[in-house]
Amino acid sequence: MLETNCLLIDDDLDDQEFFAIGLKKVPMPINYSTAKNGLEALDLLSSSSDKPHFIFLDLNMPILSGKECLPQIRQLAGYDKVPIIIFSTSSYKVDIEDCQKLGATHFFTKVHSIKTLTETITQLISGEKLPFVLNATN
Amino acid sequence: MKDYKSTPTYQSEYRFQRMIEEVQDYAIILMDEDGTIQNWNKGAQKIKGYNEQEIIGKNFSLFYLPEDQKEGLPGKLINEAKLNGRATHEGWRVRKDGTTFWGFIVITALHDEQNNVIGFTKVTRDLTERKLAEEQKERDAKSIEMQNKRLEEFAYVTSHDLQEPIRKIRAFTDLAKAEIDDREKLEWYLGKIDSSAAKMVQLIKDVLAFSKLSHDHTQFIPVDLNAQLLNVLSEFEVLISEKQAVLEVSNLPVILGVPVQIHQLLSNLISNAIKFNRGIPHIYISCIPVFEIGDDLQQKSGYQINFRDNGIGFDQKYAQKAFEPFERLSSEFKGTGIGLALCKRISENHKGSIKVQSEPGQGSTFSVFFPELITE
Q1: Which of A31, A37, B30, B244 has its CA 20 to 30 A from that of B304?
Q2: Across the interface, do A92 and B329 touch by the CB < 8 Å criterion?
Q3: Cβ of B192 under 8 Å from any chain A Cβ?
Q4: How remote is the C-alpha of B371 from its chain's centroid?
């Protein structure tokens, strides 16, 4: 089975680790990489040949925020259709609407349950049809 | 034969004339068809400052601002009164001494039997106080609106940032539960829970300090910055010796301030200068007297206190962002993102300002401006 490339763009080391733990429990082979801010992510995406299949993007980051980063990723060659999942503490309507307009594929409010994280990522990778907001009632 | 002065007609006319002359709250004047002033009452003298001898024979356009005269406003009003019988207007007018008042005026045309305009009466009321009160009310409303907006933004980011450590505590608890028998992992998770809780406490403290600033009406007193700085440095003794930080401080002035706030300001700047440094921090604190041109174009004299460091620095394009609440320019060095916002608020509370010059790898210089201490 082919490996799925997942990139998490998040400055928070705890969240990076938490995400890794959640990914390990997904019953499919995954290749996980991280970038600690938007600038690093853009560098990585424009140089790397291993194109991620899913990009998870935090909103609240120093230097280049998620909302600033999102349209820039979409403009990179070959990235207009790659699923970008906003992965943030926020569950605010304005943030959700903004991100949808900016070209996000899904909005995923960070959860405290590893099980939910694992299940959601599994659903995403298996190609299930999911609503824009992945966990509307949190 | 009876004296004319004792006839009822004369008595009545006399009293009517006196009535107009004695009215103090309204300037009531009579003008000919060109707007030349023909008589004057007490109210006119009180409101406009001229006495009768000075003003009779002059044109009423004299009461108008130069720009209104240029625009031909007095003539327009006269024409309007000629055409419609009356004209009203509200606006700034000029007194004899050059000061202005907000006048409400009514010009009424006077006609002869054949309906020809033979002159005008002009009644002016000084509504300056009402005008100023209205303007103040408008400013207050705007200020409340702005404060509400700021509060809303603040509540938004605060609740967002306060949720983060809570979510982490719950996440690590979730992980700990799943691996309750693995003592090593459990300890690691507990450590994470503890540090998230500590971060939460720090955030709450910072948010409180920040929100207190906006409605703090503490008395301003002369504050010796040298003494305040020594005080702050003694609190950082451990950190300074740990990082072997070197400080050079020149003589600082006495300013008018709120000691607790000045302490917070110095403490935040010093702690940043020590914290955001990968090597041995060198911090130079100096003071230069300056003249600053404020937003209102008023020149203010005062002191600029410079805090120069050799720390990690940042791109100058983030200089503005650095002072916004909850903005962090680095994820390598953790903070709550409130420190510099607090410094900005404190500087503004002291009618001063704060700015920064920085370059990645070259360190930063924070400059705080304090207005000169004026002793009354």
Answers
A1: B244
A2: no
A3: yes
A4: 15
Q: Cα–Cα distance between B140 and B199 in angstroms, integer?
A: 37
Domain that holds residue B75: 4-126
Joined tokens for residue A127: 């190609």
Q: What is the CATH number of the domain that holds B230?
A: 3.30.565.10
Chains A, B: CB contacts within 8 A come to: 46
- What are the C-alpha distances in Å from A87 to residues A51, A135, B40, B362? 19, 11, 78, 34
Report chain A residues whose CB lies below 8 A from the CB of B168. Answer: 14-15, 18, 112
What is the distance of C-alpha B32 from the center of its chain? 47
Q: What is A78-119 written as a DSSP string?
A: T-SSS-EEEEES---HHHHHHHHHTT-SEEEE--S-HHHHHH
Contact B256, B302 (CB under 8 A): no
The C-alpha atoms of residue A76 and residue B266 are separated, in whole angstroms, by 44
- Is residue B345 domain-shared with residue B226, that is, in the same domain? yes
Paired tokens of B195: 């540090």
Indicate whether B256 and B362 sit together in one domain. yes
The verdict on B273 and B222 lying in the same domain is yes
Q: What DSSP assignment string belongs to B303-323?
A: EEEEEEE-S----GGGTTGGG
What domain range is A57 assigned to? 12-61+71-125
A64 touches chain B (CB under 8 A): no
- Count of Cβ atoms closer than 10 Å to residue B273 Cβ: 25
Q: Which residues pair with B252 in a beta bridge?
A: none
DSSP H stretches of helix in chain B = 8-22, 42-48, 52-55, 66-70, 73-84, 128-178, 183-214, 225-235, 237-242, 259-275, 339-349
DSSP label at residue A2: P
Q: Is B126 left (phi over 0), alpha (psi -120 to 50) or beta?
A: beta
Residues of B in contact with A14 (CB under 8 A): 168, 192, 196
What is the C-alpha separation between B339 and B348, in angstroms, rounded? 14
If one counts the domains in chain B, the total is 3
Domain of A45: which CATH number? 3.40.50.2300
